[in-house]
Amino acid sequence: MVEELPIAKSTLSQHLKELKNAGLIQGNITPPTIKYCINHPNWELAKKLLNNILK
Questions:
Q1: Which band of pLDDT confidence, cut at 50, 70 and 90, is reported for residue 1?
Q2: What positions does the domain HTH arsR-type occupy (predicted)?
Q3: Alpha-carbon distance 55 to 43, whole Å?
Q4: Rounded to an integer, what distance in angstroms lies between the CA atom of residue 39 and that of residue 34?
Q5: Which sequence spans correspond to the domains of the chain?
Q6: Which of 6, 9, 20, 21 is most buried, judged by most C-beta within 10 A?
């Protein structure tokens, strides 16, 4: 992701950490890499909550 996004590696790492702490993504560690995927049930719940707030 670092190669694809115009942000520093440390910034990306911090954002991914926050998304993981919120339960929106999951990370699987296979040194030296971490593979991330969306936690679909939590992502859908977050979308519904945000849509209700923004109505």
A1: confident
A2: 2-26
A3: 18
A4: 15
A5: 9-54
A6: 20
Q: Is the peptide bond before 41 cis (omega within 30 degrees of 0)?
A: no
Rounded-to-integer distance, Cα 35 and Cα 33, Å: 7
Instruction: State the Cα–Cα distance between residues 1 and 45, nearest whole angstrom.
Output: 25
Q: What is the pLDDT of residues 7-55, one digit of tens each?
A: 999 999 999 999 999 999 999 989 988 899 999 999 999 999 999 999 8
| Beta-carbon-side half-sphere exposure of residue 12 (alpha carbons within 13 Å) | 11
Strand partners, 34: 29
